[in-house]
Q: What sequence folds into this?
């Protein structure tokens, strides 16, 4: 599953279509050929089970014919005036069919589940893994609602169709085939009469497929838009309340819901007309069989028993035919859903040749970005505090252990803008040498966080490059990128689970002792031990409440456990009050020891110990150098430092 989804991703981009819901672009949708190719590959992987399932279903269909045949024999025995002994044979046959029917049904259901369920589960895993690895800007552009509706609604539809629709489709198709063979074996004219229904059914089906396909495709898109609108409204709840624009939000949600519901109504109207046409076909077919039966019985070409069996055969076709034709409904919806899911798989960033093929794992950090180094810096500028006591009394930073070769993380002439808006980062070039710490300062909105996300590989520069040891970040597998370069932002997210679970997020296999060591390393053992169940205390939604500083403390412990080569702290300690800020500063310093780092900070105590400081203004790097150099230069940094260090 993984291999198929991944390997196809790079080559299948051309087989997907970009979609919009009128308001914003959505993720691509795979075309019919690509979707069928995916399905074929999935079925091929289960070929042996598929053959066994089909064999059992054929046996099941044959057993289904026993009833009408036995009833025909009983009828003939009565017409012939034979004694009770003549009906014993058919009754025994009926009993045998009933006894064998149950295990055959059980076996076909179990086998079918074995064919279908692992594939659907694999598809869901692949789509979720791909969705989690999608570039942040791609998800921002399309809105998370589209993604959510695909991994929930579309996966649900594919699962339902695969488990229910597909199974009933195959068994009904086999039952129809077996019945037609049975009819023909009674008398070919019975089969011919029954076939009169077929043109009406074919015509109805073609009409239905033609009219319903666009309805379902548009309906799924409208559903994606409805989910996006709902998520947007909930995400913006505090702003909506404070600005009192709830009415406008409600109207948008209402419009999106009505549009989605309108498609559902249209689909139901269409399906009702379709089933009405199928009923006409049934009556035409049954009428023709009864007419043929009366003619054949009168002429002595067929017995009453055979005519009874033929009529029962045909009546027994109603359900399977409706099941087959009706399952086109769910199969069509599933096909639309599958195309959207394969579209997500194909939206995965293409890997360069030779790059690992595994799907992305869950990002190790809430967001991740590398640090950026000094513009055009070839040799890092050491700050006065490096290697000894920092200017603000912070901890010393020893050189990285020689056993670990750290990479060079760099941005070259990078421009970036959000969506279709103008650039907010202009021509930024930075380089973080192994083991060096670079600080980024500037006023609000100057582009610091944006540059940080470019260096973390969360966003891709419009122009220019972001590289790790010369390899473009976009060419690294998400797993490798997040393992080597990690980010802590001020929006630390706690997942529902225990404290230990949250720390293990980046390395699920870590032992309790390693978790304890990480807590110890960042100085969080004291308050974590004081929680009701220590590191086993459940936090996050519905659990014990932690403050923002504690959440950031855990994020630093998580980072320590993950042990990346490069760390980006994007104002990771900005939420702290004075005491907790000091605690977090110390924790951050411990985590950064022996790693390359970028610090995005407004509190200049964090920047004074950096090797190089970059000042950003309006998306450009305007100054760079060590703390002393920049203070001596008397520019923006000097002014910021003076303002910050002046006693209030
Ligand atoms: N997700 C986004 N969508 C659109 N524009 C954005 C987004 N994030 C940031 N911007 C814009 O990009 C510019 C740079 O923002 P950025 O957050 O990188 O600056 P910053 O220096 O980190 O600011 P702060 O110190 O307030 O975090 C700003 O004009 C901001 O409004």
A:
């Amino acid at each position: 599953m993984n291999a198929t989804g991944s390997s196809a991703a790079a080559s299948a981009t051309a087989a997907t279509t970009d979609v919009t819901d009128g308001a914003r672009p959505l993720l691509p949708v795979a075309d019919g050929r690509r979707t069928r190719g995916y399905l074929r590959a999935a079925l091929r992987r289960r070929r042996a089970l598929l053959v066994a399932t089909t064999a059992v279903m054929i046996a099941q269909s044959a057993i289904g014919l026993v009833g009408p045949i036995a009833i025909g024999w009983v009828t003939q025995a009565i017409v012939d005036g034979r004694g009770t002994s003549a009906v014993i044979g058919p009754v025994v046959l009926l009993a045998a069919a009933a006894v064998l029917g149950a295990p055959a049904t059980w076996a076909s259901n179990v086998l079918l589940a074995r064919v279908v369920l692992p594939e659907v589960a694999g598809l869901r895993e692949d789509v979720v893994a791909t969705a989690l690895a999608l570039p942040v800007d791609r998800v921002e552009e399309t809105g998370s609602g589209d993604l959510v509706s695909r991994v929930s609604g579309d996966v649900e539809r594919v699962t339902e169709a695969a488990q229910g629709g597909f199974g009933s489709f195959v068994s009904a198709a086999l039952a129809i085939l077996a019945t037609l063979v049975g009819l023909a074996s009674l008398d070919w004219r019975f089969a011919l009469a029954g076939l009169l229904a077929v043109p009406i059914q074919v015509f109805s089906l073609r009409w239905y497929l033609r009219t319903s396909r666009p309805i379902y495709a548009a309906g799924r898109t409208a559903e994606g838009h409805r989910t996006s609108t709902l998520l947007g409204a909930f995400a913006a709840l505090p702003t909506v309340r404070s600005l009192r624009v709830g009415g406008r939000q409600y109207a948008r949600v209402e419009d999106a819901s009505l549009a989605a519901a309108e498609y559902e109504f249209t689909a139901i109207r269409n399906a009702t007309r379709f089933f009405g046409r199928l009923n006409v076909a049934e009556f035409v077919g049954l009428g023709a069989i009864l007419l043929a039966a009366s003619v054949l019985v009168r002429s002595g070409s067929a017995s009453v028993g055979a005519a009874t069996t033929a009529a029962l055969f045909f009546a027994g076709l109603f359900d399977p035919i409706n099941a087959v034709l009706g399952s086109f409904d769910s199969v069509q919806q599933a096909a639309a859903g599958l195309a959207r899911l394969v579209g997500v798989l194909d939206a995965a960033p293409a890997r360069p040749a030779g790059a690992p093929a595994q799907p992305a794992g869950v990002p190790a950090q809430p967001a991740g970005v590398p640090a950026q180094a000094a513009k055009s810096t070839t040799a890092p500028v050491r700050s006065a505090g490096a290697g000894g006591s920092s200017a603000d009394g912070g901890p010393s930073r020893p050189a990285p252990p020689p056993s670990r070769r750290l990479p060079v993380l760099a941005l070259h002439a990078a421009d970036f803008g959000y969506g279709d808006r103008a650039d907010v980062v202009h021509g930024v070039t930075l380089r973080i040498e192994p083991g060096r710490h670079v600080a980024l300062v500037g006023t609000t909105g100057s582009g610091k966080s944006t540059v940080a996300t470019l260096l973390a590989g969360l966003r891709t520069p419009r122009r220019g490059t972001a590289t790790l040891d010369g390899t473009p970040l976009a060419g690294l597998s998400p797993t490798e990128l997040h393992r080597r370069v990690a980010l802590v932002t001020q929006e630390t997210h706690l997942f529902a689970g225990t404290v230990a679970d949250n720390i293990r997020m980046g390395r699920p296999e870590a032992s309790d002792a390693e978790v304890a060591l990480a807590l110890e390393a960042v100085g969080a053992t004291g308050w974590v031990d004081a929680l009701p169940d220590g590191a086993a205390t459940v936090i996050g939604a519905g659990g014990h409440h932690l403050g923002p500083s504690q959440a950031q403390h855990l994020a630093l412990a998580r980072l320590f456990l993950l042990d990346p080569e490069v760390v980006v702290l994007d104002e990771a300690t900005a939420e702290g009050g004075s005491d907790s800020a000091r605690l977090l500063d110390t924790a951050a310093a411990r985590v950064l020891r022996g790693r390359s780092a970028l610090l995005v900070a407004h509190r200049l105590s964090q920047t004074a110990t950096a090797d190089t400081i970059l000042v950003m203004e309006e998306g450009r790097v305007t100054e760079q150098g060590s703390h002393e150099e920049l203070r001596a230069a008397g520019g923006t940094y000097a002014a910021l430092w003076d303002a910050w260090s002046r006693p209030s």
